[in-house]
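Human: We require from you a protein record containing the residue sequence and its fold in token form, and nothing else.

Assistant:
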Amino acid sequence: MNTQQVSPQNSDDSDRKTYRRSLKLFVSAEAEADREDNREKFEKNTNPQILESDNDIGYVPEALLTRTFKRIFFAFQVPIGDHEKYDDVNIPERYGIYPENEVLVRSFELNENGDRETGNTYEAIVPDITKASISVSLHKLGNSGEQLEQAREEIVDGEQVDIGELLNRTPYDRETRGINVLSDEYCDILLGNREVSFEAKTVTQSSQKDNPLYENEPQRIGIEKALSAEDIACLQGPPGTGKTRVIIELVRRFVEAGKRVLVTAETNQAVDNILFGDSSEQDISDTCLHYYDRVEGLNAARANPDASDNRLVHQLYREGATGREHVVLATNNSAAALDSTPLGKEWFDVAIIDEATQTTQTSAVIPMSLASTTILVGDHKQLGPERSSDPVEDEEVPGHVSPFTRLYGEDGLYGSDLGMMFDTQYRMHEDIAAFPNQEFYDGRLQNGAEIETLGKMSPILVCHVDGLEERDGTSRYNTQEIDEVVEYATRLLRHTDLEPGDLGIAAAYRAQADRLEGRVEAHDMENSGEIEISTFDAFQGSEREAMILSFTVSNDRGNLGFLSDGQGARRLNVAMTRAQRHLALFGDWDTLRTDPHGRFERLYQTVEDRGKIIE
């Protein structure tokens, strides 16, 4: 690849100090939003089963007071099982509460019906956890005599308390530290205040490995651009275009060139997908990074393996990162712990951040601060970062924009010259790909494989439902639509070669997804538990042979909620591009077609031209 400098086409007009301050304010806002969310959950629910079932919040349902000391400190012991010893208990692992967590504490008693009657809720910090014992400090009440005495009286008299997570500060402290140590060079790039260079020699210092990738011109150019990057590069991978395969090729070539590589993503699931793909214990995929680690001796490690739900990680990568490896995989946040291992910040030459459009800038600065070159891999036409502090989904708030979106593409600081878009998709039947291609990718996507249909079924169809939406808090559900979706899923499994594990059902709203899941579980359907049922957002990064989408909304006001506003276009793109062979779109199309952007009208017309309409 020729020597190249890419100049910014826009600028942030801020200086480094102002930019760092804005990122820190964003971290503080996210932390405070998490506090408020967790406080609401805890105070709203006195039933421990509800809080125990919430995987997003640490919770100790009962703990017995064992001692008090220095007025503000209290020690409790959690229950110990009949066949368990004190030393066998691991509170962080069992309950999700860790030392230094901010927590909420309240006493409780059981009434004659066995229900809990709770006292006031008090903020505390966890200074120490030892086996089955947990200590808390009512630090905020230390200078308040009357309130402290009231709290002490409630806790001592009640003897039993439940303890809920208010905030785990560690992720936010890591982001703040990443902001502080991020190099001035990276700051200038993120501000659009300097040229970006593509003069590295890695292309000539390594050889092609996965030869079919280079038969596709955009993939070849993208790989060489990333290998030539001295500072940063962006690779846009629309659905089904093989971005994970490209990441693995990059890792293999960087290692051959003598580089140490950090590979990260926002979630553990995304990290493990790069490491193992669809491998099982009996069958290791030859397209996953682990396969090449084993065959080529890449010397790879999985940081923080205990956080993974993947059994293969625990079997094959349980040692974690030691400082001797050439390749380390981690979540963006857990990568922060790597600076305490041997070599520290001198460890990595390259950081490859997958799903870089789903990460905030404050999360991305952690891996960026550990390497001199960063490769961002993502797709800014799909969903952006999840965040707590902006329920309105304002895409223009600077802290909420991913680094990929900030830098790359038509609205990015450096435009499209900073990277390459892969333009051939191998996942979807061409009739399924037609609308996303025209609507979100300006018709640039090509179809690289002939995907067979699901029997004689049309690859894409619209099913109109005359339902009526109902509200569950801020969420929505539609009982008539649930009935028709479940009936359709049953017919698909009975009359085609589709297996339950190859079917996904995605709903626009959480309340709809929860009710669909309950109905499918109660339905007389063999192996129904293998059907993946969740929200549109949760399906990002996955694929199924067949997908059923439940749009849920149905009203005479033309109110489409977040299907039209905020990230509505990206949400629709994600939902529609999961299916390989068959896609069924259930909804009240009289409501959907009132979309002020005309997006659902264009979708309806596309299905009318290429698929089937069921009124």
About this structure: Confidence is low (pLDDT under 50) at residues 391-397.
